[in-house]
Write a structure and sequence with these properties.
38% helix; Rossmann fold; lipid biosynthesis; globular; EC 1.2.1.84; 16 helices; alpha/beta; FAR_NAD-bd; 504 residues; lipid metabolism; NAD(P)-bd_dom_sf
């Protein structure tokens, strides 16, 4: 990275250089400075800090004295900066500047991408309080470092700030012990008062995304969590926006065009929460209960049902709190920012892709001409930031909903996805335990449950025939049977998505 040098200089800047403003961040001053090199030339002021100055201009820069010298200032280019208000945009960077955030679910996949984008785009953001489930402050700080600061996702920020990276991150990210499932989101009373008086934007990204999770577990975080957080939001004296990360599939099994509107409350959420937390000894049946309740009211699984109830609770409780809800479809790896292809954990599509690549799944239950609605994580974050800028300074509180999806603008048809997967594994096969490439056939797509089930058993029979005596040991036979049942269960869980005909 190129390092420039600022030295005392007496020429005033030209207006057309595009420099917007200087913000001094310390009391130590020098007479004038000038900037030249990769950045636009000619910037000066009568009194400029020699220790730490943020220049908001055609490029954002951070200035700091190298090696303690008072007559020079090292300059590092951060990110392209454009005043969006002046260039016909909605002023995202301008909105982020100086704002204080309170983010839940920040150690999760999307939460991390959001934090990285904020810090890289607006290094002069205020603070970001990060709610972390931990036993104490020390454990929360450790999770912040391990799950966020030291992860690969932040390598661009690390390159930008160099040896000052850790100090920059720790000055912006404040770990806070808490839990959205608890009253006052589990905050210590001192932190509760501090954040309530300080925060501008609350982002709820905390969620349990398991489709067939226990009903009590899913309701606790996906429904009760937003309720607890909204209760806290109503105590925040300067709050400009409550932003909820939801899912496009809260729309349930509706078909056709689906509008960006809140739900008409057609069920008693309080009764559902009471049912989930009753001490009725149901134990493992909690999974079945969640699926039963979801399907009774028109949702396909426990995850989207409890997320939908979370939206209902927010709408019912919000009062004068401005709300924006982001409903993304299937979130997958980053498209561009901070770099292409970043992924963490197994997302919705990944188990199918991995099973296929390992030769364990040669077909799947889908509508071959159906569309899988996938959207990259960084595009979801971009939409989230745009919603913040648009509604975080609205004159009147309102509730606004945005679907972030691809099925209309850039549809990915299942048979095309199957072709792409085969091309990928044909050129870059997985390896078995012996290091031998695993060659996979073209994936077969079935629109009938019976046909798919028959295919799974026929595939298992072929595996049996491939053994020396054409028979499987009882242990191996049991493993094959279990695998078939797992794949059938996977197909059953995914069926509402692989045959979905809604457009957003």
């Amino acid at each position: 990275m190129e390092t420039l040098t600022l030295k005392p200089f007496s020429v005033m800047p030209s207006i057309k250089c595009g420099w917007r403003s200087l913000s001094t961040l310390s009391k130590v001053s020098m007479r004038v400075v000038a900037c030249s090199g990769a950045l636009k030339p000619s910037i000066s002021t009568e009194r400029v800090s020699s220790s730490s100055v943020v220049v908001r201009a055609a490029e954002s820069v951070v200035l700091a004295p190298p090696n303690g010298k008072s007559d020079e200032i090292a300059v590092k280019s951060l990110v392209p900066y454009v005043d969006m208000d002046e260039d016909g945009g909605i002023g995202i960077v301008k909105f982020l500047r100086g704002k204080v955030f309170f983010i839940t679910g920040a150690t999760g996949f999307l939460g991390k991408v959001l934090i990285e984008k904020i810090l890289r785009t607006a290094p002069d953001v205020g603070k970001i309080y990060v709610l972390i489930k931990a036993k104490d402050e020390e454990a929360a700080a450790e999770r912040l470092k391990n799950d966020i600061i030291n992860t690969q996702l932040f390598k661009c920020l690390r390159q930008i700030h160099g040896k000052y990276y850790m100090s920059f991150m720790m000055s912006k990210l404040i770990p806070v012990v808490g839990n959205v499932c608890e009253s006052d989101v589990g905050l210590h009373v001192d932190f509760s008062h501090l954040i309530a008086n300080d925060v501008d934007v609350i982002v709820n990204s905390a969620a349990n995304t398991t489709f067939d999770e226990r009903y009590d577990v899913a309701i606790d975080i996906n429904t009760k969590g937003p309720s607890n957080l909204m209760e806290f939001a109503k105590k925040c004296s300067k709050l400009k926006l409550f932003l909820q990360i939801s899912t496009a599939y809260v729309n349930g099994q509706r078909q056709g065009r689906i509008m960006e509107k809140p739900f008409c409350k057609e069920l008693d959420v309080e009764s559902e929460m009471k049912l989930a937390f009753e001490d009725n000894g149901m134990g493992q049946n909690m999974k079945e209960l969640g699926l039963q309740r979801a399907k009774r009211y028109g949702w396909q699984d426990t995850y989207v049902f409890t997320k939908a109830m979370g939206e209902m609770v927010i709408d019912e409780m919000r009062g004068e709190v401005p709300v924006a809800i982001i409903r993304p479809s299937v979130i997958e790896s980053t498209f561009k920012d901070p770099f292409p292809g970043w992924m963490e954990g197994n997302r919705m599509m990944d188990p199918i892709v991995l099973y296929y690549g390992k030769g364990q799944l040669t077909g799947f239950l889908v509508d071959p001409n159906g569309v899988i609605d996938v959207v990259p994580a960084d595009m979801v974050v971009n939409a989230t930031l745009a919603a913040m800028a648009r509604h975080g300074r609205a004159p009147r509180p309102s509730m606004n909903i945005y679907h972030v999806a691809s099925s209309v603008a850039n549809p990915l048809v299942f048979h095309r996805l199957a072709d792409l997967l085969h091309q990928h594994y044909d050129s870059s096969p997985c390896l078995d335990v012996d290091g031998t490439p695993i060659r996979v056939p073209s994936m077969k797509l079935f629109d009938s449950v019976d046909d798919f089930s028959n295919h799974l058993w026929q595939d298992a029979a072929r595996r049996c025939a491939s053994t020396p005596d054409g028979k499987l040991s009882k242990k191996l036979e049991a493993i094959c049977k279990k695998t078939v049942e797992q794949l059938k269960h996977l197909a059953d869980i995914y069926q509402p998505y692989t045959f979905f005909n809604g457009s957003r």
